[in-house]
Amino acid sequence: MIEKPIRFVDVCFSPALIHLHDITESIVVVIDVLRATSSICVAFAYGVKSITPVASVEESLAYKEKGFLVGAERNGEMLDGFDLGNSPYSYMDPKIIGRDIALSTTNGTQAIAAASGAYKIVIGSFLNLDTLCNWLKQQDRSVLLLCSGWKNSFNLEDTLLAGAVVEGLQNDFDLSKMRDSALAAQHLYNLAKDDLNSFLEKSSHRIRLEKLNIDSDIKYCLTPNQTNVVPVIVNGALVNVI
Amino acid sequence: MIEKPIRFVDVCFSPALIHLHDITESIVVVIDVLRATSSICVAFAYGVKSITPVASVEESLAYKEKGFLVGAERNGEMLDGFDLGNSPYSYMDPKIIGRDIALSTTNGTQAIAAASGAYKIVIGSFLNLDTLCNWLKQQDRSVLLLCSGWKNSFNLEDTLLAGAVVEGLQNDFDLSKMRDSALAAQHLYNLAKDDLNSFLEKSSHRIRLEKLNIDSDIKYCLTPNQTNVVPVIVNGALVNVI
């Protein structure tokens, strides 16, 4: 009988701390709940073919000339000249079916770039929680949950999703020597899980986003299991592997 | 009537993230519960005159030649040729009364160095919790609680103390726009406060320290209000300002 390798789960609270983790043999789950990784899950659920994360707004525009749809957001707002913003609702549109998208966001795409040395990079949000956990269980790899945060600062909504994934993996991974960041995420998720929306009402990002009038976006992004997708980076672009 | 300025409380989970905070006008509380900042509080309670934080073991030895007592710890263990280690009990000794100490530790003294641009640097631990909070309330300054962590990684025990200070300051500081790190620390402290010791039993640093056989150190370091001291950096050395 071949024994399965022992797999660990870890959480990194900021792309600025990724250098503390050896990710070369791990699957890194990039998390930006409000709203990049939530919108990415919706886009694949609605039939997009690929999403190429790009660092700068200028780079996205170069993709537009190659026939891509382009999405961009800075500080929570959609930018002029772009086809798509950062609201999950803007991706519920037949025009994206079968298309390639180039996407640049304040935090999410930067976190994907920070994870570039990983064995594999995959997208996580509440919207694909169970599908993601099931897929991770099927891989023989340790997992690092990378919270995008807000401009490298810790944020609660990404931490709660990281905690939810820790909970989801607990029977299949070795949590006995889990680091404190993962323990904290798990504690916070268990504290919040009965009403994520109320728990996050006081959070700084929520306050920051309030003026953008995106309350329905936020409620949707905190609703587990609305999509059956696992977006994974393959040759520089995200594709759905489910 | 002169209105008091609005003061904020914030938490930084790692010295590697200190650059995200403008600390020039703030008081930075350096926290390394297990065990540097706990031992520093004990040393002042037992009559030490000053503690000079030094970055390297070599630098400490140069201070020894100048008549200082020298303390050093690396990876939790005391080093040969030093007078003092990192256990709070080693500072409960009449030999330290009126003496100057040069101290180098794995995390605590590095965090003090990271805070060097602050308006003022002060030492926090459970051992001086109430005295520290009362002193902070008397200053007209915002406060950043800097967790030393373990080699720049997030740790739970420092976060719990940060959360305890947030709780202690809530009636005197403006918490309405508090950042998520401070909210998380406060949530975790409230979850843990009835039995800090049990809450931390699974934590990674606790597991790391287990092999050092310092269970009584840990229990002591998690006991609030054993000392009435506020160690503050003045001209490069810590002195007790109470």
CATH top level assignment of chain A = Alpha Beta
Tell me what portion of residues of chain A adopts beta-strand conformation.
15-25%
**β-strand number of chain A:** 10
Named CATH architecture of chain A: Alpha-Beta Complex
Order of helices and strands of chain A: EEHEHEEEHEHEHHHHHEE
> How many H/I helical runs of chain A?
9
How would you write the strand order of the largest sheet of chain A? 1-8-2-7
Task: Give the integer mean of the pLDDT values of chain A.
Answer: 92
Q: What is the CATH homology-level superfamily of chain A?
A: ComB-like
Largest interface: A-B, 28 and 28 residues
Low-confidence stretches of chain A: none
Q: What sort of overall outline of chain A do the alpha carbons produce when their principal axes are compared? A: globular
Q: What about the largest sheet of chain A?
A: 4 strands, parallel
